[in-house]
Structure formats: C-alpha cells, structure tokens
Amino acid sequence: MKVKKIILVGAKWAPFHEKMKKLCEKIAEEKNIEFEEKIEDWMFLKRYGEKDELGGTDIPQVFVEYENGEIEHLLTKVPLSSDGSPNYDAARDKIISKLE
Fold first, then answer.
1. Phi-psi region of 55 (alpha: psi -120 to 50; beta: other; left: phi over 0)
2. Considering the domain 3-99 in this protein, what is its CATH number?
C-alpha cells in the first residue's frame, strides 16, 4: 500500500508540538508525501489513536494515511533518551522505519 500522508495530532499547548510538527513536515517532504496537522482532534484520537489503560489518549500522536484511506498509528509521545530528555532522532527513526 502506498502512503498518502503523515498526520500529526497535537495541541499548541503541548511541550513537543512544534518540534514534532517540524519533524513530520521534514519527513513528509523527504518522502514526497502530504503532511496534515490536526489540533486537539480528540475524535480522531478516539477512533485511531493509542489509548492508555483508562481509555484516554496522549498527544502528540503520529499516523499515516494510505491511498486507500486506511489509517495506521505510528508513534505516541516523543521517545526519551537515557538521561530523560526528548530524543527526536529516535522519533524520526521510528516514523521512517514504519514508512518503509
């Protein structure tokens, strides 16, 4: 199945939102696919997102949409490095590995 676009669901108030947006935009540009940003789209997250044990959802979450309309979850939150800081390289690697 061919990937149509990367979808980021986030919130302007979320600490990693802008960095994840830029990361997803860059990956989409490199892969020559669309990028879509959804702001606080809780219905989309309820339908497609990863949920915790209480049924709640975290942001940011990254998805891929295929040409046939199927949506697949790729990433929830930014992975952390061993020192507890955000690891955007690991986030990038995880997204790209699922795209290939």
1. left
2. 3.40.30.10
